[in-house]
Amino acid sequence: MKRTAIREKGFFLILLIFFAGWRAWGCSESLPLSPRQAGFRDQVFRVLERLADPLAQPVAQEDKRGIQGVLLRLFSVCADDCEGLLDNVVVLDRDGVTIAVYPEEKVPMWNFSDYAAVKRAVESKTPVPAILYRPDGTAISAICAPLLHKERVEGVVVLVIESRKLKEKLGLTETEFLSLDFSRS
Questions:
Q1: Does some domain include residue 17?
Q2: What is the pTM of this model?
Q3: pLDDT tens digits, residue range 148-160?
Q4: Looking at residue 153, which CATH number applies to its domain?
Q5: In three state form, how does the secondary structure of the chain look?
């Protein structure tokens, strides 16, 4: 009986050491990105770089026609950069209120003001991945990136991608998508 108790304690001690080592040596970290996932992240960097500067000034000036013109001019190029994954670009003011959506949709205006991801993008001044919900309740994958004009956050650009497309084309689950770092640090 005593021998069994010692074995059980030894077994649990070995398990405890194993899991402590696993955490200490970083084995609990996510796996490295696959080439397709890393490529997607780089594509997102290019899209954000392509959109950020042209959108920042019209957003700062509350120029809706200027914003729509930038989106009209750049959306197809950005969609091509993301291999057709990009469904919409939504431009928000710094409070999360929708200024523009491209391509335009026949849905009620989106209001992102309650989304923590939008608030984090404004506060951190870095892109933030998120799972958001359309007015009809459909889940979408989104990258919320601040629009800086003269070092001040004037708004947020949201790249909208159907979660299903990320899974089918890149093998990315929602959890893996949320773990991607879209900041250029």
A1: no
A2: 0.78
A3: 998 899 999 999 9
A4: 3.30.450.20
A5: CHHHHHHHHHHHHHHHHHHHHHHHCCCCCCCCCCHHHHHHHHHHHHHHHHHHHHHHHHHHCCCHHHHHHHHHHHHHHHHHHCCCCEEEEEEEECCCEEEEEECCCCCCCCECCCCHHHHHHHHHCCCEEEEEECCCCCEEEEEEEEEEECCEEEEEEEEEECHHHHHHHHCCCHHHHHHCCCCCC
